[in-house]
Amino acid sequence: MRHAGFRVVLAAAALLAGGAQAQNDARLVALINDWRASPGECGGTRRAPAPALTSNPLLARVRFGTGSFPEYELERVGYDAAQVEVIFTRGAVDAAGVMDAIRQPYCRVLANPAYSDIGVVRQGQEWTIVLARPLLPLHLPAQDVVGREILDAVNAARAVARNCGERAFAAAAPLAWNDALGAAALAHSRDMAARRHMAHEGSDGSTVAVRATRAGYSWRLIGENVAAGQPSASEAVAGWIDSPGHCANLMNPAFTEMGAGYEISRARMPGFVYWTQVFGVRR
User: Fold this and answer.
1) Would the CA dihedral through 230, 236, 241, 246 be positive or negative?
2) Which residues contact 149 (CB under 8 A, 6 or more apart)?
3) Which residue range forms the structural domain that includes residue 110?
4) Which of these, 93, 26, 14, 90, lies nearest to 60 by C-alpha position?
5) What's the pLDDT band for 66 if we cut at 50, 70, 90?
6) SS3 of 79, please?
7) pLDDT at 22 over 70
8) Cα gap 32→194, rounded to integer Å
9) Residues 59 and 127 in one domain
10) Is residue 27 within 8 Å of residue 94, measured between CB atoms?
11) Exposed site from 62, 115, 225, 282, fewest CB < 10 Å?
12) CB atoms closer than 10 angstroms to residue 205
């Protein structure tokens, strides 16, 4: 599962109220980039040069305070972060003073080559420095391609006897793809992504049985697996295999057909994928 990493490295600032006096202080950004470009020592070890940081106006709009969470503040300003660190400091009257205060205590943060963007907010003698790496959008192949990947992975798993928790399953016959089940799965993945909530119950209270019927599948037996956060079809199937209940669905010899679909949520955490797999036996 993909997670954005957030860390506040110095919680020493009071709540920032009102407008900031300075945003993305060019002098401080230049001093930090000059320091990153020059080799030196950090914590008793040699520090390699790191690429320059780019001033990002979104990071300069954040407002952190007591009890605030970096991920929420970044979401508020529209910056999707894979990783971020926040340094608070107070007392310095200019950029040189800030650099003197943070150069050694936070050298590992400042020198981290993973960060590419920076934002600086100043309120009087209180300074907030935000270093971040953007979350790149996740792209997956077309639904039919991903559906085939899931079908192939499931059939490979069914071909081998295995235990699903405490239940033993013999190898089972391969499943066939069914478009109606695929449509039901895709609709539910889209519903989960829109709500940013993983559940078997739909936003309208529907069950998998209702959704399969809506999609035109006349069923005698129906089942469903859902998952969220796995960035690929293979990881979604692996997660189902590792979960006893999902594994039991996947290995159930009574099922003859399946469909699957995914949707990527771009609302809060771009690249967060919701997965649905529907199993069935037609009447």
Assistant:
1) positive
2) 141, 233, 234
3) 15-134
4) 26
5) low
6) coil
7) no
8) 40
9) yes
10) yes
11) 282
12) 7
HSE value, Cβ hemisphere, 13 Å, CA-based, for 9: 18
Structure tokens at 218: 């006349």
Rounded Cα gap, residues 46 and 35, in angstroms: 13
The answer as to whether 3 is a domain residue is no
Which residues, listed in sequence order, are joined to residue 123 by a DSSP beta bridge?
A: 126
Reduce the DSSP state of residue 54 to 3 states and report it. Answer: strand
Contact 114, 104 (CB under 8 A): no
Give CA–CA dist 246/162, Å, rounded: 13
Q: Which helix (H) or strand (E) holds 208?
A: helix 208-214
- Does residue 119 have a pLDDT over 60? yes
Whether this prediction's pTM lies above 0.70 is answered by no
CATH of the domain at 42: 3.40.33.10
Q: How many domains does the chain have?
A: 2
- Report CA-CA distances (Å) from 110 to 4, 9, 90, 146, 229: 19, 11, 17, 40, 30
Are 130 and 78 within one domain?
A: yes
- Closest to 193 (Cα-Cα) out of 164, 162, 227, 170: 227
Q: Which of 23, 38, 54, 42 is nearest to 109 (CA)?
A: 42
Cβ contact 47:40 at 8 Å? yes
Q: What token pair was written down for 181? A: 């089940």
Burial of 13 (0-12, 13-18, 19+ CB in 10 A): buried
Question: Which long-range contacts link 211-215 to residues 24+ away (Cβ below 8 Å)?
Answer: 211/184, 211/187, 211/278, 212/180, 212/181, 212/184, 212/278, 212/280, 214/184, 214/187, 215/180, 215/181, 215/183, 215/184, 215/187
Residue that finishes a domain, picked among 93, 115, 134: 134
DSSP letter for each residue of 138-150: P----HHHHHHHH
Position of tokens 């039901």? 184
